[in-house]
Write a structure and sequence with these properties.
The structure is a single chain. With 382 residues, the protein is of the alpha/beta class. Helix content is 37%, strand content 18%. The chain has 13 helices and 14 strands.
């Protein structure tokens, strides 16, 4: 078990031994405060982009629903005719090849798994680099007519000046023991939420109750709604692989036991969603941004394997590489039953972030302040 996994599980259990790390948390908090104040005072240089910057982030370690939120915002802005781009640090990618533009042909090992997912779903102009100024410059050089750039997970990156900040809070997960790293899983103190635009990630039933109460309907909320399972390899993938010439034996799982394999920041949400869909879940949590191997996945037999869209990006690349390797050695032959069975067992559960009307109204107000107009008719009925 890795140190990251051990600490993550301790956070989840609120383990008593974490309080032994409190002096480290105090030091971390002091350094965080001094660093932020130094940027505010101009002691550290920060970059002002030539277009408005909207930062989407959180104050906790681990998943909060930020990536699905960005995908929904990008899709919505595109529908409104707004020319939007996205930047990211490209976590999990190869920083020696950055800054880099992200395309549908980009590899997760090069640009990171989340950027690949965002671009595959939205086709948005996107660039990655730990240095956000370089990412923005690269993006604007390729797409000079962008009106807005969304920064993925740059809340604590104060070297980048921002015009809009949205902080995502997963209400179901909460804040644990409300302590900073490493005693707790807070990146910044709770006070950071004061006077901030906070998007509360609630369970669907909570959002429904809020929407039915006129006094609460204006809350800034989001929920994640699962869609239908789909096979990890598409028909186009299979068609392009000559060795997969036999008909697929895959049947969409509807109930029963499944292997839930997850390498995201908060896998419990994924497991809980599968249970609400009627599955008996065999949990296989891995560290966030985990690099899977086919050897690991092949050991999950007897039942279907269901993964998140984020993990699917890397697993698909891994599986296609293996199948192409087999095809180059033994062209025009069927793949062995072991690999074929794995292909037929792998399924993806997509989720979509649904936002309250109040979120869209707030977005319109903020963008109009920078001369970016959106039609009021763009609000979505909930």
């Amino acid at each position: 078990m890795s140190i990251e996994t051990a600490i993550t599980r301790a956070w989840q259990r609120k383990a008593a031994w974490l309080w032994l790390l409190l002096p480290i948390s105090w030091l971390y908090g002091l350094l965080t405060l001094l660093r932020r104040q130094a940027y505010k005072a101009g002691l550290f240089a920060s970059y002002r982009a030539p277009v408005p910057i909207m930062v989407i982030g959180n104050i906790t370690v681990g998943g909060s629903g930020k990536t699905p939120l960005i995908i929904t915002l990008v899709s919505y802005l595109q529908q409104q005719g707004i020319k939007v781009g996205v930047i990211s640090r490209g976590y999990g990618g190869d920083s020696s090849q950055m800054p880099a533009l992200v395309t549908k042909d980009s590899l997760p090992s090069t640009v990171g798994d989340e950027p690949c997912l965002i671009v595959n779903v939205t086709a948005v102009p996107m660039a990655v680099c730990p240095n956000r100024e370089q990412a923005i410059t690269t993006l604007l050089n390729a797409y000079p007519d962008l009106q807005l750039i969304i920064a993925d997970d740059g809340l604590q990156h104060y070297a980048l000046q921002r015009d809009i900040e949205w902080i995502v809070v997963d209400v179901a997960r909460g804040f644990g023991n409300q302590q900073l790293l490493p005693t707790g899983f807070l990146r910044e103190p709770m006070a950071r939420l004061t006077d901030a635009i906070v998007i509360y990630h609630e369970k669907p039933e909570v959002v429904s109750a809020l929407n039915n109460n006129e006094n609460l309907a204006q809350h800034l909320t989001m929920q994640l709604q699962p869609s239908s399972l789909y096979p990890l390899l598409s028909d186009d993938d299979i068609h392009d692989l000559d060795i997969l010439t036999s008909s697929s034996d895959a049947v969409v799982p509807m109930q029963g036991s499944v292997h839930a394999v997850s390498g995201i920041g908060y896998p419990q949400r994924f497991f809980a969603t599968l249970r609400t869909l009627g599955f008996d879940v065999i949990e296989h949590p891995y560290p966030d941004h985990y690099d899977f191997s086919l050897l690991e996945l092949r050991k999950y037999t007897e039942h279907p394997i269901i993964v998140t869209t984020k993990d699917a990006v890397k697993i698909r690349t891994l599986l296609l590489a293996e199948l192409n390797k087999i095809n180059s050695i033994k062209p025009d032959e069927l793949i062995n039953d072991d690999i074929k069975a794995l292909v037929n067992r792998l399924w993806v559960l997509p989720v979509t972030a649904e936002l309250s009307n109040a979120c869209y109204q707030k977005l319109q107000q903020q963008l109009e302040a920078f001369g970016i107009d959106m039609p009021t008719s763009g609000f979505r009925d909930k």
